[in-house]
């Protein structure tokens, strides 16, 4: 269920969203969709949507804000929160929370640091988080789906089986990472079963409206849509901090510099962002820059913080 | 000149500082002072000071907050700001603004990225910034000293010649970095002259009070103590973003997670931090953790943000 | 001690072997057996055997020269020869023939060089060779076994199922390498099937006598025991060259320096060596140095070339 | 063509040299001269010379075999021998004797191995050897020049001051290596003085005839032209082994595979090679392949060993 204008406090940013959409629409150059799997390569880079969700559960947006797209790495935020809620700080013995530097170094860093990935948002780290959630729940991707449906109020939100199969067919690099960490004793589940869970999580399809709503627990310092607490205030701060320093591949510094908000991007072209204590945002446009972030998405968030002055800095 | 309680708005955090100092005083375990040069190794790890400077120029503190110490890498923030003010975005063609990952990789990353260091706060990046400021001013360290004296209101603030000489005597690694970048054409000045400027900057001696005051331009979105503008609002945001993502060596993620403020540490045991739009902090205690950050300093800032709730997240 | 003397030309080096065995017997310090799988860890490091095989097929030795042991990486030489015989220089488009430098760098080099391993004797390279032989024959390990039996004249020579199972149970690092190369398109077979073939090859059990005989085709410039040609003269030279530069892990330079012969070691404690045009040697003693080569084995070969002057240099 | 025939044993290979020169003359494609300094870039890639020196001191050749050229890294062999003769095995505590793998990794390997370069023929290793010879003699390059003049019987052989100055002007990368090793305590002399010695050594100008003669001590197992011993038999074997495994940059395996002789190349287009106990060779042609070895030089040595069968394998 999508809620629009549920309270008087909502729609605050609607004129700003419309101005941004208008500016983006006039801007040529959108980058190129991810092409490592066919399902992503087919996306039209001219698509653009942006949604804001407020703390009271209202959500509004512009453009293709209700159009489902492939969330990809965005779901790493939710899996992290679900596992952190269960095991707390013990998680940080198995995955770090430092930026990873150049992607070129991912494997050498894993070797140098004895199979402990740098943070939960690089693939190696997300595999560890999924592995741990799988051990605790028996169905990591099922937990994720239930959470996303509950928070977004959208019971039709689901995996895309074709995307998951496509990820699996191109999954040798993730298999290498998982086996490599297993050689250090940092993976508990059998690698094929782990990969199956991981690729399903990557395949979730959701809209900007869905994701903005599902992210509001981070703006509410850990409180879910139904008022129950998922994370402690401190844990919510931790997740936001990891998003700011590690959430946009090798462009986290650039994103902090331009946008100045905790954010997490996916190669499907989506980006979520958190204004702590205030609201959340989700933007989508499939064309990517050379570092894997949505060109129009980053531009839109940059404009949003410039126009509203809501940056954390 | 140190100003204490200059307005009614000040002293807000004095009770909190006193509580933190009391807690820190009861805590055993302070890490060990840096030992690569004798001048630092001789420091007593039980020393502790903390200062807060407010936007109106008032400053107050606890413990050894008026005791001068070796600022070391903290001055990288001011050199960055002074050069950014002069050349603007052109600087970013010569130094990146992304976290550097594991320190082990500093040289391989320089090689992989053709002599462009990852950010202005690793030594390689600070050498580039100093080189560029030197080219523009003819006396990079003199510019730095004049700025620090003006902002802190302390005309006795100065270099420590013994520390600079000691740095120079142990300077082979920095010389290697400078020559390596010169081989890619990313250093303009002769390497020995550049190193001389660089080591002088590292040798500045200042107190928590001095540094908290000198940092207020970042909390004031770029405005200096005398009301003139050093940086545009956007540039001030950029410096804060780089501090948050890259300011504490290989612990930036951990610092963001625990403290949640833009900060910059030095191996002399000092740390500065910015609460944008509100105030600045400087803490000092010489004992370091294995990543080079003051143990008591990080703990004190962690307590400060926990007790006051001023984190950016 | 049983000596098998097939012709008048043989036994030339018997007095030298006996002298070496006597010297080795007096030497304390043998290193430690490999301990990553139980089957190897149980070996007694005081065991020592050494055999010489002459071009006419005669073989003789000292100590435990007829005792079967786990050949491990020694079989990489035979798999390389069997594949090179089939596909010729095309192989070198899929695996290099340069030393690999520090083992630490294996993964980064694979990444830097687009999934092409440095040489056929590091694990990544041996996986590629096995993959290609598997594609050509449908049973790479069966081909290897048939070849070893024919050349050694020992029909009981066989795989050790327990060792193969143990390798497989500890096989995550090799699985990571295989998947990583598959992500670059440099592996044809399904990774699990490839690993099964690979681990079987590592598990071959044979004696010094068996292996010295099986290696004589390299001393005969490519001619097998039955007089047929396996490799061209040029290909035999190529295999010898790769053994000299890459045959003893990260100690190839040291081995060339001390022994001065093409050689290949295994973590079971065996080493084969070739005196081109003259004879072959195989030595076995399970205690390893920190680089994975048999301590007594290298010492024995060092003494052999010193006493006989047969080094290639 | 002038042929100097000092004894009846000489001229053995003259017909083969002429055949090789004729074949090379018909072969198009010579690579490109090194272009990092102007003095090398101006060389004509069609130049070609080849000389053989026999153990009795006779020397003969074809083409431009008496034309002086820039020896560059070839002199690393002589500096190594001169230092090894003085300090023996202690040298190997300061420089390794293992191949270095990909050039990309030179700096990371230095860091991983605490400032000990992999072998004496990479630049870092040659800097260490020069540093140690300098400490022992006070004039490393003077020692080198005296040795080369004595062995070649050519008193006009000399440094090229323009080349040395040009190397120095482009010497930032070598300066970086030297300072980096100094930071680990593995360099004794001041870096500028060491670099001066090093660049002079690189600037030696000599002909194929000169270098073939100067190398004969390695074919005579350590005995100089005047009958005195420079190296022990074991040390001469060591130098030959290091040449075979490390003498041709990142193509040592390929060179062993194709040529099968200990050899050392320079970016001036020269290559020396040793047939232990038999003769030495020197070939020169300025066009290089992408790994820095003379295209026509490697081809000529490949043909030589193929036609004569003198490979060590």
Automatic annotation (TrEMBL), chains A, B, C, D:
Family annotation (Gene3D superfamilies): DD-peptidase/beta-lactamase superfamily (3.40.710.10)
Binding positions for substrate per the UniProt entry: 73, 123, 167, 174, 198, 249, 267
Keywords: Acetylation, Hydrolase
The keyword Protein transport is assigned to this record: no
The organism's place on the tree of life at top rank: Bacteria
Pfam family, one: Glutaminase
Coiled coil: none
Keyword check for Cytoplasm: no
Catalytic reaction equation(s): L-glutamine + H2O = L-glutamate + NH4(+)
Quaternary organization: Homotetramer.
HAMAP family the record matches: Glutaminase
The family this protein is said to belong to: Belongs to the glutaminase family.
Record protein name field: Glutaminase
Protein species of origin: Streptomyces shaanxiensis
Gene: glsA
